[in-house]
Specification:
Blueprint (H helix, E strand, L loop, with lengths): L25 E4 L6 H7 L4 H8 L12 E4 L23 E5 L6 H7 L4 H7 L13 E5 L22 E4 L6 H7 L4 H7 L13 E4 L34 E5 L6 H6 L4 E7 L9 H9 L3 E7 L2 H6 L1 H17 L4 E4 L16 H18 L4 E4 L11 E2 L2 E2 L1 H10 L9 E5 L24 H11 L5 E6 L22 H18 L2 E6 L12 H4 L9 H9 L3
Parallel strand pairs: 7-8, 7-16, 8-9, 9-10, 10-11, 14-15, 15-16
Antiparallel strand pairs: 1-2, 3-4, 5-6, 12-13
Helix pairs in contact: 1-2, 3-4, 5-6, 10-11, 11-12, 14-16
Length: 546
């Protein structure tokens, strides 16, 4: 950005008797969390006026410490001087809180009976997901949100907003804010939204400026046969962020409801049986008020002899599940490793052929069923991609190059190697600490980079702890220091990070109710612990807004 030039007037022009004083230009030092829109509101100016006075080009990026010239209204027209912007009133009985490992702003807010929006404003935090261990926060001592500011002085009247925006399916406040070059907390304040994570399709928001132009309508197709290709993506079940859990026995729907989960994930292992054998998974989910995601894998050995034939048989099977009422289907699982796909045939191109066949079949059977691509195993073991196995980054690149974006509604992602808080991007206490797979933000960025037009669906995300169960197996010793409290706090923190990104559609907790404890310690990931308690359910409920 060009360096901002500040024009400070050193004299006040004196007018003849009976004339009003002409306003001098003012200087405003940008504070952390401010943007050009809320500064313009403070002084009763428009964004365009401030941008023109300071030589700031769209998208109007400014930084803390910059000085902004506040021009006189009307380019020098006579007007009464505006009152200085009032500082926010301090909440009664204020104290401080030192951020602990694993805490999020929402978790801290819940402790003090307030909201994370209030804490963000009190502490000048532009990004509520970015906290540092040891950071000192101002917090209200009383368990109530601070009262609205009332300084007794007349605040300058803000410029009226010049446009509205109607919330579309799949929108989040962060996505909408990005369209108008403002902070999503500012949009929340502007529209009186207590929880920026709760929007409704059709809701009309005030925005700083005219709405962005609608995307041009596609050109009409020429006469003749329609070209081959995927059916148009369905919008059903592809709306805002939702939480769910993978249930092995689906024995704890009450705990899941308490955690504000609306999805249950069940895994289907298909070996040629009719789809009716798995109908009970769909029916039991519906009977308990949940949407159901079926993660479907087949027989890897059956792929080897006739891949194309198997892909179509598999597609026919998942189409029957969609017809039976499955709300979402994940097409296969961790297909980049030979545990799940035949060695010698592992590639993102081969998998995309299966995905394409499944997508067409599912959408033909039930256009409302969401299709999620199988999540690769996150790994750097292979140091590249070969027919015997591949790392997830190059496997995703192969999928992208094969056109996989045309055959999915959502990108499947797995993250279950959490050994650090969900906002950490470095510092995992392991020898391979530089690899992205240890860090949730880096995983999000990686997967988003390959399919920027598609939302992400975390179909497995969990934190492993042996507390209350026993010593972790050797291959999972990296998680030996993780406590049950950290599991609960980090899952809640993951909700805030994923939900606040604006591009994550679904978070499936891995897992709800596993009891198996062996070489693969599934029970250590479970949120329902031996004895029936679920500490993480409470933290998830708070993170989801109550």
């Amino acid at each position: 950005m060009r360096r901002l030039t500040v024009f400070l007037m050193t004299t006040i022009l004196l007018m003849s008797l009976g004339s009003a004083a002409v306003l001098a230009q003012q200087a405003h030092v940008v504070q952390r969390g401010e943007n050009l829109f809320n500064i313009a509101q403070q002084y009763g100016r428009s964004v365009e006026e401030l941008a023109q006075a300071n030589g700031i080009a769209p998208p109007y990026v400014i930084h803390a410490g910059n000085q902004i010239t506040i021009p006189a209204p009307g380019g020098g027209a006579q007007a009464p001087a505006p009152a200085a912007p009032a500082a926010p009133q301090q909440p009664a009985g204020e104290t401080t809180h030192i951020v602990q490992r694993g805490e999020s702003l929402a978790i801290i807010a819940a402790q003090y009976g307030t909201t994370y929006i209030v804490l963000a404003e009190m502490n000048g935090i532009a990004n509520p997901d970015a906290l540092n261990v040891g950071q000192v926060l101002r917090v209200p001592m009383r368990a109530s949100a601070p009262a609205p500011t009332d300084t007794g002085a007349q605040a300058p009247a803000p410029q009226p907003t010049t446009g509205t925006y109607t919330v579309q399916r799949g929108d989040s406040l962060a996505i909408i804010a990005a369209k108008f070059n403002v902070n999503y907390l500012e949009l929340a304040r502007l529209n009186g939204i207590a929880d920026p994570n709760i929007l409704h399709v059709g809701q009309v928001l005030q925005v700083p400026g005219a709405p962005p132009p609608a995307a041009p309508a596609p050109a009409p197709a020429e006469a003749g046969p329609a070209p081959a290709g995927p059916p148009p993506p369905s919008t059903a079940n592809t709306g805002g962020f939702e939480l769910g859990g993978q249930a092995l026995s689906f024995a704890h729907p009450g705990h899941m409801r308490n955690a504000r989960m609306t999805w249950v994930k069940r895994q289907v292992k298909w070996h040629g049986e009719p789809a009716s054998n798995f109908q009970h998974m769909i029916d039991s989910a519906k009977a308990n008020g949940f949407k159901v995601l079926l993660s479907v894998i087949g027989d890897k050995n059956a792929i080897s002899g006739n891949p194309a034939g198997y892909y179509q048989n598999f597609a026919n099977f998942v189409a029957q599940l969609a017809r039976g009422g499955a709300d979402a289907i994940e097409v296969w699982n961790e297909m980049n490793i030979d545990r799940e796909w035949p060695s010698g045939q592992i590639s993102g191109h081969n998998y995309t052929q299966m995905l394409a066949a499944a997508y067409h079949a599912i959408k033909s059977a039930n256009s409302g069923t969401m299709v999620i691509s199988g999540a690769p195993a996150p790994t750097g073991f292979f140091q590249g991609c070969g027919a015997g196995g591949g790392d997830d980054d190059c496997f995703l690149q192969q999928m992208r190059d094969a056109g996989a974006a045309n055959y999915m509604d959502c990108v499947g992602v797995h993250y279950n190697a959490g050994i650090v808080p969900p906002d950490a991007t470095s510092g995992a206490p392991v020898g391979s600490s530089g690899h992205y797979s240890w860090y949730l933000p880096r995983m999000m960025q990686l997967y988003r980079s390959f399919f920027p037009s598609k939302p992400l669906c975390f179909t497995e995300l969990g934190y492993l702890t042996g507390e209350g169960i026993g010593e972790l197996p050797g291959g999972f010793a990296w998680a030996s220091g993780i406590s049950l409290a950290q599991q609960a706090a980090w899952l809640a923190g993951a909700v805030h990070r994923l939900r606040g990104s604006g591009y994550v559609r679904m978070f499936i907790v891995w897992n709800v109710d596993a009891t198996h404890w062996g070489a693969d310690p599934q029970a250590g990931y479970a949120i329902v612990r031996p004895g029936g308690g679920c500490p993480a359910c409470d933290s998830l409920r708070v993170a989801m807004g109550g």
